[in-house]
Amino acid sequence: MTRHFLRDDDLTPAEQAEVLALAAAMKQDPFAAKPLAGPVTVATIYDKPTLRTQASFSSGIAELGGHSMLVDGRLAGIGERESVADVARVLGRQAGEIVWRTFAQADLEAMAAHSGVPVVNALTDEFHPCQLLADLQTLAEHKGSLAGLTAAFLGDAACNMGNSWALAGALAGMHVRFGAPEGYAPDADVLVRAKEIAEETGGSVSVTPDPVTAAADADVLITDTWVSMGKESEKEARIAVFSPYALTTELLGHADPDAVVLHCLPAYRGKEIEAEVLDGPRSLVWDEAENRRHAQKAILAFLWERR
Ligand code: NVA
Fold it and tell me: What superkingdom heads the lineage (predicted)?
């Protein structure tokens, strides 16, 4: 059966470790593995703004020996001019894999159900699993291993990054804490699933409204924009709600002395993260951005082998 990567828990804990090991190997020797030689075409579609995702998929697919085909979602009129299912049936006849950044997780699921080829989530409103592979790869590089580490995610945990951290961190056997205001925890069903996974892996998942409790002795502090794509009309209200959760030098002082900082970018200095933290010595954000390429190559190769 065709495998997809629509959400973080589409991989088992062992498979996540396998993909991360493959990503590390691909980083060591970026041109060694050519599973998409032919070249196999990978269709990429971006319905929301993108920089890192488009750039890293394009370069990564080239390094795998494949061909990256940009499909303009607006020209195609996906879901308007023709249904997601029909688009999937057509693209599945032209491309070996499909990468899609879009709004609704249900649309991505429909693409996967009808394409007949592996589909990769390049961000939806609900999950950002490729980013999490890059985040975990980055953390493993700097900490040696992941199981048992404590991660604190501050701010808007109700977004795709919050949901994905709950699932992917649990899969890796980490202790994931969310420091988020009332009403901005990860999705309730996602939390239930993440806690089930954590039972299996020896990790844990918790939510607290107190940023200092979340950050205390943590090995990694993570944040994301307070205004995710699609939430622009709520900007002012969100800044007011999330201000106490900013990732500042002071908050970093509560974390482990060797704590590192992750941010998926784009970052808003002076809002969710202080410039001194983002641009400071604990920040791994540029490695994290680079690792998108290696991690995504690994998941494309993993799915292609199992198609
Ligand atoms: N939560 C952010 C992630 C950006 C990569 C958003 O959806 O806009």
Answer: Bacteria
